[in-house]
Amino acid sequence: MTRYEYVRLSMRDIPDKIIKEYKLTEIATSDNNVYIEVRKGMYGLPQAGLLAQQLLEKRLNAHGYTQDPMIPGYWTHSQRPIQFILTVDDFGIKYCLELGAGDLSERTQLEELEEDVHFVFR
Predict the structure, then answer these.
(1) 104 and 56 in one domain?
(2) pTM score over 0.85
(3) Do residues 53 and 112 both lie within one domain?
(4) Whether residue 27 is found in the same domain as residue 71
(5) pLDDT digits (tens, 9 = 90+) for 17-70
(6) Which domain holds residue 14?
(7) Distance between CA 56 and CA 64 in Å, rounded?
(8) Which one-letter DSSP state was computed for residue 28?
Protein backbone atom coordinates (compact mmCIF):
# COMPACT_ATOMS: atom_id res chain seq x y z
CA MET A 1 0.00 0.00 0.00
CA THR A 2 1.30 3.44 -0.83
CA ARG A 3 -0.57 4.85 2.15
CA TYR A 4 -2.10 3.18 5.18
CA GLU A 5 -5.84 2.88 5.70
CA TYR A 6 -7.68 3.19 9.02
CA VAL A 7 -10.66 1.17 10.21
CA ARG A 8 -12.96 1.89 13.14
CA LEU A 9 -14.02 -1.10 15.22
CA SER A 10 -16.58 -1.10 17.99
CA MET A 11 -15.29 -2.62 21.23
CA ARG A 12 -18.44 -4.76 21.42
CA ASP A 13 -17.31 -6.56 18.24
CA ILE A 14 -13.92 -7.51 19.68
CA PRO A 15 -13.58 -10.61 21.90
CA ASP A 16 -12.69 -9.94 25.54
CA LYS A 17 -9.52 -12.00 25.23
CA ILE A 18 -8.24 -9.67 22.49
CA ILE A 19 -9.27 -6.55 24.42
CA LYS A 20 -7.30 -7.72 27.46
CA GLU A 21 -4.28 -9.01 25.53
CA TYR A 22 -3.79 -5.75 23.62
CA LYS A 23 -5.10 -3.44 26.37
CA LEU A 24 -7.62 -1.90 24.00
CA THR A 25 -9.64 -0.21 26.75
CA GLU A 26 -6.67 2.15 27.20
CA ILE A 27 -6.88 3.38 23.61
CA ALA A 28 -10.65 3.21 23.05
CA THR A 29 -12.42 6.45 22.20
CA SER A 30 -15.18 7.94 24.36
CA ASP A 31 -17.80 6.30 22.13
CA ASN A 32 -16.18 2.87 22.75
CA ASN A 33 -14.39 2.44 19.41
CA VAL A 34 -10.80 1.66 18.49
CA TYR A 35 -9.08 2.60 15.28
CA ILE A 36 -6.72 0.19 13.59
CA GLU A 37 -4.09 0.88 10.96
CA VAL A 38 -4.12 -1.40 7.93
CA ARG A 39 -0.66 -1.70 6.38
CA LYS A 40 -1.30 -4.55 3.95
CA GLY A 41 -4.29 -6.00 2.15
CA MET A 42 -7.24 -7.06 4.26
CA TYR A 43 -10.39 -8.98 3.40
CA GLY A 44 -13.22 -6.55 2.78
CA LEU A 45 -10.95 -3.62 2.00
CA PRO A 46 -12.17 -2.09 -1.28
CA GLN A 47 -8.66 -2.00 -2.76
CA ALA A 48 -7.72 -5.55 -1.65
CA GLY A 49 -7.99 -6.86 -5.22
CA LEU A 50 -5.71 -4.14 -6.56
CA LEU A 51 -3.17 -4.77 -3.80
CA ALA A 52 -3.16 -8.51 -4.57
CA GLN A 53 -2.72 -7.76 -8.29
CA GLN A 54 0.21 -5.43 -7.62
CA LEU A 55 1.93 -7.97 -5.35
CA LEU A 56 1.45 -10.77 -7.90
CA GLU A 57 2.76 -8.57 -10.70
CA LYS A 58 5.85 -7.60 -8.66
CA ARG A 59 6.63 -11.25 -7.84
CA LEU A 60 6.08 -12.54 -11.37
CA ASN A 61 7.88 -9.71 -13.18
CA ALA A 62 10.98 -10.43 -11.13
CA HIS A 63 11.09 -13.94 -12.63
CA GLY A 64 10.42 -13.26 -16.30
CA TYR A 65 6.61 -13.24 -16.38
CA THR A 66 4.75 -10.34 -17.97
CA GLN A 67 1.10 -9.46 -18.20
CA ASP A 68 -0.23 -8.75 -21.67
CA PRO A 69 -0.89 -5.00 -22.06
CA MET A 70 -4.03 -5.64 -24.14
CA ILE A 71 -5.49 -8.61 -22.24
CA PRO A 72 -5.63 -8.03 -18.48
CA GLY A 73 -4.94 -11.22 -16.55
CA TYR A 74 -3.12 -13.00 -19.40
CA TRP A 75 0.48 -13.79 -18.41
CA THR A 76 3.39 -15.31 -20.34
CA HIS A 77 6.97 -16.19 -19.49
CA SER A 78 9.75 -14.54 -21.50
CA GLN A 79 11.82 -17.73 -21.98
CA ARG A 80 9.66 -20.72 -21.08
CA PRO A 81 6.51 -21.97 -22.81
CA ILE A 82 4.28 -21.00 -19.88
CA GLN A 83 1.13 -18.96 -20.16
CA PHE A 84 -1.83 -18.56 -17.87
CA ILE A 85 -4.91 -16.49 -17.24
CA LEU A 86 -5.63 -15.17 -13.77
CA THR A 87 -9.25 -14.68 -12.79
CA VAL A 88 -10.72 -13.81 -9.42
CA ASP A 89 -9.70 -16.51 -6.91
CA ASP A 90 -8.76 -18.97 -9.66
CA PHE A 91 -5.79 -19.92 -11.78
CA GLY A 92 -5.78 -21.83 -15.04
CA ILE A 93 -2.26 -22.67 -16.13
CA LYS A 94 -1.17 -24.13 -19.45
CA TYR A 95 2.40 -25.31 -19.78
CA CYS A 96 4.43 -27.80 -21.79
CA LEU A 97 6.74 -29.25 -19.17
CA GLU A 98 6.41 -30.28 -15.52
CA LEU A 99 8.92 -27.52 -14.86
CA GLY A 100 6.23 -24.96 -15.70
CA ALA A 101 3.88 -25.66 -12.80
CA GLY A 102 6.66 -25.93 -10.27
CA ASP A 103 8.30 -22.73 -11.44
CA LEU A 104 5.08 -20.73 -11.33
CA SER A 105 4.11 -22.13 -7.95
CA GLU A 106 7.55 -21.26 -6.59
CA ARG A 107 7.59 -17.75 -8.02
CA THR A 108 4.17 -16.77 -6.71
CA GLN A 109 4.49 -18.63 -3.39
CA LEU A 110 1.23 -20.44 -4.15
CA GLU A 111 2.09 -23.48 -2.09
CA GLU A 112 0.46 -21.69 0.86
CA LEU A 113 -2.83 -21.60 -1.08
CA GLU A 114 -2.56 -25.07 -2.58
CA GLU A 115 -6.24 -25.98 -2.13
CA ASP A 116 -7.29 -22.86 -4.07
CA VAL A 117 -4.92 -23.35 -7.00
CA HIS A 118 -5.92 -25.55 -9.90
CA PHE A 119 -3.35 -26.58 -12.48
CA VAL A 120 -4.59 -27.55 -15.93
CA PHE A 121 -2.21 -30.11 -17.46
CA ARG A 122 -2.03 -30.21 -21.26
Answers:
(1) yes
(2) no
(3) yes
(4) no
(5) 999 999 999 999 999 999 988 887 666 777 777 777 788 888 889 989 999 999
(6) 5-38
(7) 13
(8) -
